[in-house]
Design goal:
alpha+beta, 12% strand, 37% helix, 3 helices, globular
Amino acid sequence: MNLLIRMVDVTEGREAASRPFLGRVPHLTPGQEQLRARRERYGFTCLTVLEPYMEAFAPVMRAVRED
């Protein structure tokens, strides 16, 4: 399964970073599961990140690969 990641904002403050998007994406909540948990729950084996966010997502990919 493939997960398309449309925007990346790597931050320690997940709640503050997600707040501006809560009205535009109804199912998004500040306490959402992390990427690893979603991978386990839904079985994503491929992650697609749009080009403007590839470099920002690189540290996340390294962390995910360490699992």
